[in-house]
Amino acid sequence: MNASTSPSRLPSLAEILALSLPLAAAVGMGFFLVSGLPRGEDARYSRARDDLRAFRSLVIFSPKVPDTQAGLQYFVDSGQIPFLPQDPWGRPYQYRNPGTEHPYEIFSLGPDGMESKDDVIAWNLYGGR
Length: 129
Description:
By secondary structure, the protein is mainly alpha-helical. It contains three helices and three strands; from the N terminus they run H-H-H-E-E-E.
């Protein structure tokens, strides 16, 4: 019998597993990654915390710590960052030096746009005011 007239062969279990496991793993990993991402308001708080960590690093490693008047714009003007992002609620991040409770303070006013308990603060990323 030649190849054109031979009956079609069913794949073995090993062949099926060899083809299906990578696909199943990829689908499972995709589901895990997507389901593990924060959503809605949690995602906004998460992004604000990430931004504040980055700003805090800029201040810590900068040769000059800007005063309140220069603010975070100092890092744009000095070429350390290309632009100032808005917080996740569409407002500018706040900066004070000297701060009211710490030498300098970087924070987001949170969803209500006022200094209150929902703020995200660089020195207390998970606790608010």
